[in-house]
Specification:
Length: about 50
């Protein structure tokens, strides 16, 4: 059976929409375009 007291101790309320947006936008995530630009820059530097 589920121990509701234990489950309530684990509970964390979800972020409000503004807080969630801020948390998402403030993360520095690298995407494929960033990786490609980095690889092209490295290749150009190696040619010199």
């Amino acid at each position: 059976m589920i121990n509701f007291e234990e489950e309530l101790k684990k509970f964390h309320p979800s972020l409000e929409i503004e807080q969630a947006e801020e948390a998402i936008y403030n993360q520095d995530l690298t995407d494929m375009a960033d990786l490609l630009v980095s690889m092209i820059k490295e290749a150009k530097n190696e040619e010199k």
